[in-house]
Each structure stands twice: as C-alpha cells, then as structure tokens.
Amino acid sequence: MRHADFIADAGIARQQHTLADGRDLFYFDDPDTTLSPDRAADVRELDQRPATANMRQDPLSAEWVSIAAARQNRVFLPPAHLDPLAPSTPDNPSEVPSNYDVAVFENKTPSFGPLLTDADAPAGLADLATIGLGRTRTSVGRCEVVCFSPENEGSFASLSATRARTVIEAWAERTYALSSLPGIEQVFPFENRGEAIGVTLRHPHGQIYAYPYVTPRTRQLIESLDVYGPTLFADILTLEQAGDRVVLQGAYWTAFVPFAARWPIEVHMLPNRHVPDFAATTLAERDELAVLYRRLLRGIDAIYSTPTPYIGAWHQAPVHVRRSEIRLMLQVTSPRRAEDKLKYLAGSEAAMGAWIGDVTPEQAATTIREAIERADAADAAASAAATPPARTATPEKPHHD
C-alpha cells in the first residue's frame, strides 16, 4: 500500500457512515468539537446512483474527456433553506444526516466513478496512452465533496484556524485512502469559490477528484522534468525565496507569485522540503499550513472590497510515477483583474494556449502582501475586540485604626 508513513492526527476524531444509496460518508470532528459522537442514519428514499460516465478520447491531443451527462441536473444556487450540504432537517433532507464540523461524501453525480475498474481497459495506462479514432472508455474513479462547515455560506478563508486544520486533515486522509484504491492514478483536492468561477453551491466546500489517468497538466510537468532534471521544484523554490515575489513564508511552507504568472491573481505555495502529496505531510506541516493558507486566502479577499472568486488547486504527485520528483503544490488563481473587471480567456489563451498576462508578477506580489497585512490587522483587531479586558484589582482603601 502507498503512503505507509501516513500519520493521522489523533486529536481529530473520524467516523465512517453509509448514505441511503450506498455512498460513503465520513465525519471529521474538530479537536474541540461540541458535537455528540452519535450520528443519525440517512433515512431518505433515493434513486439508484447514475451509471458511471464514459470517457472519449480527443485524438488531436490524446486527452480523455469524461462525458458525465447526469451532472446537467445538479442543484444550481439553491436558497439557504434547501442547501443540500447543510445538516439534514425535516424540511431539508440533505446529503449529510447529522450536524458536523467537516464532512466528506461521495458525489451524487460524479464525473468519475463509482466504478473503479474498466473491463474494456485491462492494460490501464498503457491502453489509455494509445491514440485512435472513436475510442471510449469507462470514467472509472471517484469524486468526493468536502464540506468545510455546516454554515450555508463562506469559504476556506472564513473558517477558524482550528476548522481549517480539520479540513487539511481530511484532505490528507482522503488522499491516502483514495490513492490506495484500484485504478486510481492521481488525486486532486480543490476548492472553487464564487459564481464568477462557476460555483453552483454557496456552501463552503471543496471537492476531491481521483482520476484513472495522469492528468494533462501533470503530463506536461513530466515533460518539463525530462528536459530540466529532477531538481526542478527545489530550484524553483530557491529562486523564488531569493526574490521579491514571496508573499508568505513559514518554517515549512513558502507562498509566492510565480515568475511567469498567467492570471492577474496567482499564487503558488510549496512545502520547503520534498513532499509528494498531503498524505506524506507531517502533523507540524499541516498545523502551519492551516495558518498560512487561511492567511493567504483572507489576504486575497482583502485586495478588493468584496470577496474574490478563485480556484484553490492542490497539485499532487501521481500515485505511481515520478513521486520523488513532483512536489505537492498549491495554485490559487483568480480572473479578477480589477474591482469590477474579470479576465476572460480570449482567442490566444482559449484556442492556442498562448497566455498574455495583464499584471506584472512583481506588482501582483506587492498588492497581495499589502492585502495580507490588512487582513492580519483586521483579524488582530477583531480578536482583541472579542477578548474580555483583563480584570484589574480594586485598590484597597486605607485602613485606619
């Protein structure tokens, strides 16, 4: 089994349950949780799960496209009282039967899965690498939803530091578990935030995709490693730490605007040592990440007067290949190029993949650093206001005999 060195945080309790249609549900409880360990059963009457989607190969790029038509019917921006990710109530029989701190469950309309094996592709990756016309395969794999909070609105940035740490523990444990499933080649945790990104639920949540192949972006990275050499990530980190694009740095992580940033807001974060994925992180690394990642996102939100739409993408090494060379990396991107303007992918970017940047990475780094400072100051002020003033002793009156 992979990740034999995975260490779970014993202070974060977890439970496994099954939803009414057979999907897995996992609860992760904060160390200081006030919730009862007893959780309700899912008593809904649900339709059978949709059949696993099919992939079609584009012979011009050799890429596989999953055609998951069942997703067309998923819920779109429901009112708060019908939030499918909120804890279940008699009026809203949701996906999560009980109140929770963090909950993870299999997606009802997945892009990949629930099947984990494809009878038509016994050779696995070797079969997928072949190029032909009209080729189809089953979209095996798994897709999970990660609910960050029972609240109806918010994002990772709105979580407490304790809750952020619980979410990171869920990412680590689910990466470990999904990487151990048959047919899984790469695991991808991510968060889509904001309607400008295409979010269909306002509830604070993310997703984890477990793919049956190494994704196109990672295959391009492998080509770069073949040309440059195995020290690519270490050398990038050394370059950025010596420059003026670093926005946050800790004992275990460094966040920076990359030298060739494509988006008007783009930040990468790397662990300071080689770590292939979340499952390989230490408890100390997860502890620091909960603080730094939250500060980064709160800073990005503080750039403008309204919250910033973004994609928080955690690139992890494939399950079976190049794990000693490919390092876990966060990539936060936002199309927001001004208070009321978005960058749309026009002809050069969308059709040719040839990007044109609107903001210099150095200026973007300065803007983000200043916004993080404002967010930190606002957090400190809010914390001070919430802390009761220290009680001062009343001076004793002089006593006269």
From TrEMBL:
All copies of domain Galactose-1-phosphate uridyl transferase C-terminal, residue ranges: 231-370
Molecular-function annotations in GO: UDP-glucose:hexose-1-phosphate uridylyltransferase activity; zinc ion binding
Domain Galactose-1-phosphate uridyl transferase N-terminal: 100-214
Active site per database record: 205
Keywords: Carbohydrate metabolism, Galactose metabolism, Metal-binding, Nucleotidyltransferase, Transferase, Zinc
Enzyme Commission identifier(s): 2.7.7.12
Cofactor: Zn(2+)
GO biological process: galactose catabolic process via UDP-galactose, Leloir pathway
Catalytic activity: alpha-D-galactose 1-phosphate + UDP-alpha-D-glucose = alpha-D-glucose 1-phosphate + UDP-alpha-D-galactose
Positions with biased composition (Low complexity): 378-393
Pathway assigned in UniProt: Carbohydrate metabolism; galactose metabolism
Cellular component terms (Gene Ontology): cytoplasm
PANTHER family: GALACTOSE-1-PHOSPHATE URIDYLYLTRANSFERASE
Family label: Belongs to the galactose-1-phosphate uridylyltransferase type 1 family.
Name this protein carries in UniProt: Galactose-1-phosphate uridylyltransferase
Species of origin: Cryobacterium flavum
Gene transcribed to yield this protein: galT
